[in-house]
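Sequence in, structure out. Go.
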Amino acid sequence: MSNENSGVPEIKLVFDEPKQKVKPPKHFADLSPEERKAKAVEIGVPAFRANQMAVHFFSHYNDDPESWTDIPKELREKLAAEFMPKLITLVRSVVADGGKTRKDLWRLHDGVLVESVLMRYSDRTTVCISSQAGCGMNCPFCATGQGGLTRNLTAGEITAQVVAAARACAEGELPGGPTRLSNIVFMGMGEPMANYNSVLRSVRNITAPQPDGLGISARSVTLSTVGLVNGIEKLMEEGIPVTLAVSLHTPDDELRDTLVPINSRFKVKEVLAAADKYAEKTGRRYSIEYALIRDINDQAWRSDLLGRLLKNRNAHVNLIPLNPTPGSKWTASRPQDEAEFVRILETYGVPVTVRDTRGRDIDGACGQLAAAEITSEA
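Output:
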């Protein structure tokens, strides 16, 4: 079905940074380890200074040059100006679950707002980060998608969210005392595959051993996509076995053309075939993200169709009770419909879990806090 005939807006897939009105300043985290050293030499500083900055940033989560006591004082200001411009500034935080869930609203250098969510569990601490300001995928049930795409984030801006979360964990800002940030999920604002280069640089920053990166296992990084097949195909050649999460939301093309407009370009079977290839290449099971929406995609026959599609695949279904947004007609499924959906999938032997609905009382859906802030400033 063509976009022209379907009424679905044309979506341009972007694998590089688009031109922006005011280009974000270049940051240490935008560069590879080799590029960091080369830039140091270029500005007349020994290459090992880049290693020292890497230790401060990725091992100690510290971008304050005043505390870089192993670097001569007269050099700190120069290095900070060249490598560590301030990329994100905390606007406010809201908490839920006794403080174990915290949503942070960040203002970028050009005033754009993005969100991240830090969640402490008994066995792990996870941060959900944004890869774009807004989103161009236009999914009607998603608060971020309805706001449209403002711009891509740089690798520095994405990585800064992770480093801020790691610092909050190390400094004991969450209940239970200091902990280690263990899991990263690219499930915040934006479509990661539509900002491929910056996201990949960020993934390398996250997974590279310290001090070149944060030293978090690729297996603890989840990269979500609505189904950009060419992005999945590129990712499987990178040699970084992150967990792939496909936001499917319905197993039939007819409804998915409406819920996930990119389906007009990449149909369900094509998306699942790409995910299968990724699983085969990396040895990693992929996740099917499925937001349960009352009377829209939670019918028993859709669970049956999903079960038949996935029964012999190396996939796991993550059902997500929809976080409703103010004024939206979309809302979460009834408990009995959710339970029946799970039961049917299990009859096919498909692994399925229902995601913990954390953050519902703090505008849990991505984009809600930013939208509220923009409204308050108007």
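Check: Confidence is low (pLDDT under 50) at residues 1-19. The chain is about 35% helix and 20% strand.
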